[in-house]
Amino acid sequence: MSSGHDTAPRAAVGPLTGGAAGLAVLAGLYLIVGPWLARYGGAAELAVSNTVAGLAIVVFAALRLPALTWVVPVLGAWAAVSPLILRYGDETAPSDAAVTGNLIAGIVVVAAGVTLLVRRR
Question: pTM of the prediction?
Fold first, then answer.
């Protein structure tokens, strides 16, 4: 029974939404630890980009704030394409494992973010 005192808007909660948020959080965590798991070599720009994007994905997906849900798929798209866009200068280019890991994590985050957006309405 509701007491009627809780009038704050809540994000949609359900098995699909919770599962999508969980997948986005896991993919975000992978982006954070990926530079050490996939041996990014000298690709420091990608490691920093992944850490920042991964932290943001974890926070936004876990909190599921309706006004900021759109950020999750955008960050996922960035994670997927960032190995191809970032310039590495004199540094070593990222390994194939790093590029593949980013692509997969990015696709998972985009799909999860779109699910969160659709379920939000």
Answer: 0.80
